[in-house]
Amino acid sequence: MTAIAKTAARAAAPDVAAHVDALDWPQITAELDAQGCAVLNNLLTPDQCRAVAALYPDDAHFRSRIVMGRHGFGRGEYKYFAYPLPDLIAQLRPALYAHLQSVANRWNEAMGIDIRYPDSHASFLKRCHEAGQARPTPLLLQYEAGDYNCLHQDLYGEHVFPIQVAILLSEPGRDFTGGEFVLTEQRPRMQSRAEVVPLAQGDAVAFAVHHRPVQGTRGIYRVNLRHGVSRIRSGQRHTLGVIFHDAK
């Protein structure tokens, strides 16, 4: 990690929770309910984005590296962070969870799922760790020209928090072209619906990990979702993935 990245990360971290609290959560919640995804505008500053992206070459921050083509996941690569997480990410995770937890519980109630999520992220992680899911799941993705991410779901074990967040660290049009975030939704007995979510540097998208409730004419039903990234046309794209459950 460069001296610039260290300085930016230290300076950025203390205000993260307050900034998250100040987001328009009623609007975010309404979009999650309506579309299964919502944009969190300007979640990170450009300096914060550059600081996180600058971590990628330093393996000391990570527990593993995945080359996507070796597993049929697409093209590109990503690294899972190790504990302890960098301060910025360690603060983002519980701050975002605190606002998404009520949405997750309401969704499960609507879908007839008995699982409920505790108020604090620390309590939820304790549940994961007691079940053998103790490996951290926040990840940093790196794409080059021609890379893409196939449609998928980030489940990792029995305990799954049903919403996750992806933050675009690179600047579209300057650092890369192409590479749009894509979400697909499969409704029963219907063709899949695709949603392309345009993001600016520092914007995040919160979205359903697996399924969500939808109100139909005969009541509420479940729809299944997958997400991915379209082909990078040029340049390099970095993304921070914030997943709230840990992995086996």
The tally of strands reads 14
Largest sheet: 8 strands, antiparallel
Q: Which structural class do you get from the secondary structure elements?
A: alpha+beta
Element order: H for helix, E for strand: HHHEHEEEHHEEEEEEEEEE
Which range best describes the helical content: under 10%, 10-25%, 25-40%, 40-55%, 55-70% or over 70%?
25-40%
- Distance separating the two termini: 28 Å
Number of helices: 6
Radius of gyration: 17 Å
What general form does the structure show?
globular
Look at the structure and give the mean pLDDT.
93
Q: What is the strand content?
A: 25-35%
Poorly predicted regions: 7-12
Keywords:
33% strand, alpha+beta, 6-stranded antiparallel sheet, 248 residues, globular, 6 helices
Summary?
The chain is an alpha+beta fold and 248 residues long.
